[in-house]
Amino acid sequence: MHRREFLAGTLAASALAAAPAAETQTSVTRPREFYQLRRYALQSGPQVAMTEKYISEALIPALAKRAGPVGAFRLDIGPETPTFYVLIPIPAAAMAGALELELAQDSDYVKAAEPFWSAPATSPAFLRIDSSLLVAFEGWPRITPPAKGKRIFQLRTYESPSYRDHIVKVQMFHSGEFEIFKNAGFQMVFFGDTLIGRRMPSLTYMLSFADSADLDAKWNVFRDDPAWKKLSADPRFAFEGIVSNITNLVLSPLAASQI
Length: 259
Description:
It is a single chain. By secondary structure, the protein is an alpha+beta fold. It has one domain: Alpha-Beta Plaits (2-Layer Sandwich), CATH 3.30.70.100. It has 8 helices and 8 strands, in the order ααβαββααββαββααβ. It has an 8-stranded antiparallel beta barrel, surrounded by 4 helices. A hairpin with a 5-residue loop joins β2 and β3. α1 runs parallel beside α6 and α3 runs antiparallel to α5. The longest helix has 21 residues.
């Protein structure tokens, strides 16, 4: 099999992930979103304020004309702080590639972004920016923002040792794991399968909590749920380690975040 054919087949299988018929039917009435997840790596000092101002006063207002809700978060617990994350929902994958070109034609955006865009090499606005493109899971096709109020967010990425194992892990969510999350009281924000990005194959999802105590309490309920113990021991998913690495970040929303 040619490499191109293999990749096409893998992505198609990963995107579908053998979702139950009822969930496939849901996706017809609620089309799955795509997500651009941006990471702004910063250096402590002026970069933090400059980039937050850019995200709040230039990027989010411009994106609000095209997509929404847009999430903007500060990394509180995790490697490489300070870092900001921006979650951009888009209706079609092709929009991700054209987004920067579109923004460059938006005069309001260009004016508001000028200090960030034109920061001199002696005082840059950021260290690096990277982004990934994800497609929403069949069983969770759209962002579900939590209720307004003080919140923290958990951003979790599961890497798998092979595309087969990755697809099996996605199937696991559609085979009862969503319901276990719900029964534990989790506020689920989004679930996405990485199409383009670093450290593939992988999936990423986001949960929301009132505070760190709430986060710990809900995960304890999840781990002790007999349904989780049964699902995690199911031979369909327990034949080997289908997740090889987990990245677990704790974020807080920026004041301008719409999530």
